Amino acid sequence: MPRGADSAAPRPRTGRRPGPTTTRDAILAAARRRFAEVGYDRATFRQIAAAAGVDPALVVQFFGSKQELFLAAVRMPDASGVLGGALEGDPATAGTRVARVLVGWLDDDAARSVLIARIRSAASEPSAAELVRQAATEQLAEVVRHLGGDHPDVRGALAASQFVGLVMVREVVGVEPLAALAPEELVELLGPTFQRYLTEPLALDG
Amino acid sequence: MPRGADSAAPRPRTGRRPGPTTTRDAILAAARRRFAEVGYDRATFRQIAAAAGVDPALVVQFFGSKQELFLAAVRMPDASGVLGGALEGDPATAGTRVARVLVGWLDDDAARSVLIARIRSAASEPSAAELVRQAATEQLAEVVRHLGGDHPDVRGALAASQFVGLVMVREVVGVEPLAALAPEELVELLGPTFQRYLTEPLALDG
């Protein structure tokens, strides 16, 4: 676990803000936005501290390193729980429900920043790539297992590839027609792809 | 056009290699590999020069800036021609042929480096993001127009999202089950997705 990433973070000594939790949350929110906007390599302690209204030294005091700040900022606590909820109901429409959860994250400011920060940063920073790898091989493969599909690792990775590509093309690169579509339109376009990857017969035993 | 990116590149004065074209090609090949391995921000003139066996000053002399070197290194001259070839034949199986071209690029060292370098770099460098945007909105949308599909921009962007995500998950993040699949297995898994995005009825007029 990153140093200072839990509630036992060191109490800052400047006293500029009411309490350490508030300051810490402000730094994390600023870091999340910055990592989402420019990716891991171009985000700096200085910019993040300025956006949070604190001294850069305080960011270092709280989080130690950029990697620890990144890992604390891009936590997504209830991902598997939310995806689990999509599994209730008819398995034949699970793809649409999974698409609705994933696209819904892009419609929520905090979740959207976390996802964009992770995926943008995965292009160069191994600790970010590891988070994306885990989402593909653990969370989405777990969805496949719940649905009773064969080859959960391959199916999870295929579903991850479509979602990661959506975030890259729609949010990072900003390809206009996808950026302009309403969330529910995206769900209808992507639902059958997730349905096929997660549950339908695939040529995997050839 | 990037300075020095055509055949009229300035002749290097060191005379270390037989001729400017050979030196230039060695620099471009080294740059392509390095941008693919670590992305735009972490690639340096110094590393690229060392890999090409030349002085860093010569790289600057040839290409001027990192952005110009990047744009020269990640050219992919015949993409639209190759994709065009996939359009001949039965439109009902065009998705598989497009998948075969795209997956085939990942099986070719030079094309693979170009694609990974572009997509990895698109996460932080706007000039790389622009190349990905053009591929989605021009080359893949053109495929849709050839196939007579409606909404070519949305269809092209959806197809691009699946391919960009494949490169991210398989090549950049390195999710094992996808990395281990044979190219023709990938073609069979992805073909129906491209078929649907490129030609089949989509809920786009709601």
Helix/strand-derived category of chain A reads mainly alpha
Overall number of strands of chain A: 0
In percent terms, what proportion of residues of chain A is strand?
under 5%
- Range of helix content of chain A: over 70%
Oligomer kind = homodimer
What is Rg of chain A? Answer: 19 Å
- Mean pLDDT rating of chain A: 88
Q: Uncertain regions of chain A: pLDDT < 50 for 5+ in a row?
A: 1-17
| Number of helical elements of chain A | 11
> What distance separates the N and C termini of chain A?
42 Å
Biggest sheet architecture of chain A:
none
Instruction: List the helices and strands of chain A in order.
Output: HHHHHHHHHHH
Shape designation of chain A: elongated
Quick one: which chains have the greatest interface?
A-B, 48 and 48 residues
Detailed description of the structure:
2 copies of one chain form a homodimer. By secondary structure, chain A is an all-alpha fold. The first copy, chain A, has helices at residues 20-42, 45-52, 56-63, 66-73, 79-85, 94-106, 109-122, 126-147, 152-172, 176-180, 183-199. The longest helix of chain A has 23 residues, at 20-42. The radius of gyration of chain A is 19 Å and the shape is elongated. Mean pLDDT of chain A is 88; it is low at 1-17.
Q: What are the key terms here?
A:
homodimer, mainly alpha, elongated, 206 residues, 71% helix
